[in-house]
Write a structure and sequence with these properties.
Rossmann fold; Transcription Regulator spoIIAA; 19% strand; globular
Length: 581
């Protein structure tokens, strides 16, 4: 029997289709009669199919625009705005982890704000709770797991009062633990990875309207959110973070960032300059350029005549990826950003030691508003451990770089990262790390015990340093770090430092706090001071202003002093790169 497969069409106008076949054991007349009958069915079928949806109706750009019926119509099953608007629902954000997550919060909020959502600082009023998460260490993840349990209990109570709330996980943890969050624990309604914030309105609409979990954790090779101006929520607008790139290509063996944030890509320089100008107009006095590896920035979106052709690594440094060619480099970007507002401080974090050509260091030394403070992550002082970490440099190369930095920028302040108890680390390796800390003399440090992640180290190395040893080594590193920081900070006692005022001290309403060019916290009494160094009239000190402070004492984590007068960073501007605005 020859059969004809039915054509399936989602239409209420088409009758159920029957299987069509040749009749058996019938006369010629019967066959003719059957043929005429089948011809009638076939003609009717063709007419109905012709009036149904076309192929193009199923492949339109999202949101999907399926026709309500098979009659051609301009009315769509899902309109572009249906369910995607916030309808004044209140969103509550909690941000964990690095400064990049702070910036991601501002990006996510900018997207939701345009769709009609409102932001609240009161958890009890929230219709949507979004946690911007970190996966860099086990402790960070455990903190969020615990918080999710608390929020789930709150969610159940709200359901009883007919006031439902949706819980969403954003950022690195959403990408890394999507299965556990959605399938095993069933604690969240929405998951959005670092490259999926544009999709938040749709995800929330799906979770709200359909009561289903919604997820998008796809990583992108292109997403930089260049066209989205973050809604800044820095303290009274005194400082702000500006993302210049996303992802990382370094593939250090301990680091999960390439797997949770994807490959490295740089935001176009024109977009960065536009955001910095906007912040300057708003009165922001300090901008920090952000990225996982800021000094490997390379804008190749346009032909940039003032950019160098190729990155050259300093002696003793290597990389797992091919050096990038063309476009504007980090030194070019830093130059352009610093020219926008001479009275605005410029910082950047986090760099990699391999990407510090002399032109970057010389620019920092020459430009008054680029802070003389460099974050220089070492991670370890042992060559054996550095090799296992795939850091791309030796202890000797790192120390040579430090010497070069101090020679070009004599008054530089250095900060660093260190990991205690990495795979295979011996007591001798640990002692080499302690000696590196003593030799360099850092002002600020971020020190952690190693926690295994699903990275190169997870697959190739053994986490063989027991937790008790990791903790002991970490405590020793912290102790040595504080000793050296106190020694370094003591050198500025008696000097006068330009301080950007942040506000009241957390410990006393009678004191103010701010930060020096070297990013050291300074505590000083709240009192009126001279408007200018030589002026007799005085004025109160307010957040967001600069004051000159005489340093009277120093500890490992802060300085104490007394304000002398109001001041400014303003100096004579230098010409900008011709032809680029």
């Amino acid at each position: 029997m020859r059969t004809v497969k039915p054509f399936l069409c989602a239409s209420k106008h088409l009758a159920p289709l029957r299987w069509l076949s040749k009749p058996r054991n019938c006369s010629n007349a019967a066959r003719a009669s059957s043929g005429e009958k089948n011809k009638g069915v076939s003609d009717s079928f063709r007419r109905q199919v012709a009036s149904g949806p076309r192929f193009q109706d199923f492949i339109k750009s999202p949101p999907v625009t399926l026709a309500v019926n098979c009659e051609h119509t301009d009315e769509h099953y899902l309109s572009e705005d249906l369910g995607l608007l916030g309808d004044a629902r209140k969103v509550y954000f909690e941000t964990y982890g690095c400064q990049m997550n702070v910036n991601d919060t501002e990006i996510a909020w900018a997207i939701l704000q345009k769709k009609g959502y409102q932001r609240t600082a009161d958890l009890k009023q929230a219709d949507v709770v979004l946690l911007v998460t970190c996966s860099i260490r086990e402790k960070a993840e455990q903190t969020i797991w615990n918080r999710l349990q608390q929020l789930t209990a709150m969610k159940k109570k709200r359901l009883k009062t007919n006031s439902p709330v949706k819980i969403g996980i954003l950022g690195c943890m959403a990408e890394r633990l999507k299965t556990e969050l959605l399938e095993r624990e069933k604690l969240v309604d929405v998951l959005a990875g670092p490259d999926a914030y544009r999709d938040l309105p749709r995800l929330l609409a799906a979770a709200t309207a359909g009561g289903q979990q919604a997820s998008n954790v796809l990583l992108s090779l292109e997403e930089t959110y260049a066209d989205i101006m973050p809604v800044q929520h820095a303290s009274q607008g005194r400082s702000a973070f500006v993302s210049i790139m996303r992802g990382c290509d370094n593939m250090c063996s301990y680091c999960i960032v390439p797997f949770t944030r994807g490959r490295e890509r740089s935001r176009p320089v024109s977009s960065i300059l536009e955001e910095v100008r906007m912040l300057s107009e708003q009165g922001v006095k300090e901008v920090t350029l952000l990225g996982q590896n800021v000094n490997s920035y390379r804008d190749t979106s346009e032909v940039q005549f003032c950019g160098s052709e190729r990155t050259k690594l300093s002696r003793g440094f290597s990389t797992v990826y091919r050096a990038k060619q063309g476009g504007l480099r980090f030194s070019d970007l830093l130059d352009l950003v610093s020219r926008i507002d001479p009275d605005m401080r410029i910082r950047f974090t986090s760099p990699h030691p391999k990407d510090f050509p002399d032109e970057v260091l010389q620019l920092i030394a020459e430009r008054q508003n680029i802070c003389k403070q460099i974050h220089l992550p070492a991670q370890s002082g042992s060559n054996q451990v550095l090799k296992a970490m795939r850091r791309g440099y030796t202890r000797e190369a790192y120390l040579d770089l430090v010497d070069n930095i101090k020679q070009i920028i004599p008054d530089v302040s250095l900060s660093s990262d260190f990991i205690s108890g990495f795979c295979g680390e011996t007591d001798d390796d640990h002692q080499q790390t302690l000696s590196l800390i003593r030799e360099v003399g850092f002002n600020v440090g971020f020190l952690f015990a190693y926690s295994m992640r699903k990275t190169h180290a997870f697959h190739r190395l053994q986490d063989d340093v027991v937790p008790q040893v990791k903790q002991r080594r970490l405590e020793e590193c912290i102790s040595v770090f504080r000793e050296e920081a106190e020694r370094v900070n003591a050198a500025v006692v008696g000097s006068t430092q330009l301080v950007l005022v942040e506000g009241e001290s957390k410990r006393s309403a009678e004191d103010l706090c701010g930060r020096t060019d070297g990013n050291m916290k300074v505590i000083f009494p709240k009192e009126d001071v001279a408007v200018q160094a030589s002026a007799s009239n005085t004025a109160p000190i307010r957040g967001g202003g600069y004051v000159l402070v005489k340093i009277l004492s120093a500890g490992s984590q802060s300085l104490r002093g007394r304000a002398l007068s109001h001041s400014s960073l303003i100096s004579t501007p230098t010409p900008s790169c011709d032809g680029y605005k």
